[in-house]
Amino acid sequence: MKRELTSIEIGNIGEKYIARYLRRRGYKIKERNMRNFHSEIDIIAESKEYIVFVEVKTRTLGQLFPPRAAVNAEKRRKIIFASRTYMRYKNIKKTPRYDIAEVYLTKEKHKVDSINYIENAFY
Q: What's this model's pTM, rounded to 2 decimal places?
């Protein structure tokens, strides 16, 4: 029997999977787990036209609420503030986009069952 994973380990599985998902779609991963005084941004990626700030929420199958429900107004406000600070600091002129990646793990919690990638999730 496999041991129970911590929430950090579960989150890391989802973030690694989404980083790989984005790379395969032509995005360049600029940062992972970028922290500042106000918030953390799970993945910062770049496409030809956007700088993309991705909030990754990983859950096991069978949860009552979808993972995106955890990205409430306060969390969004913090991510937007952190993204603007990042863009100013790095002198990035591209249009920002805010995505949410929902990652669903099998009951064993070790394997990705499916994802739901939501572009422009904050609007």
A: 0.92
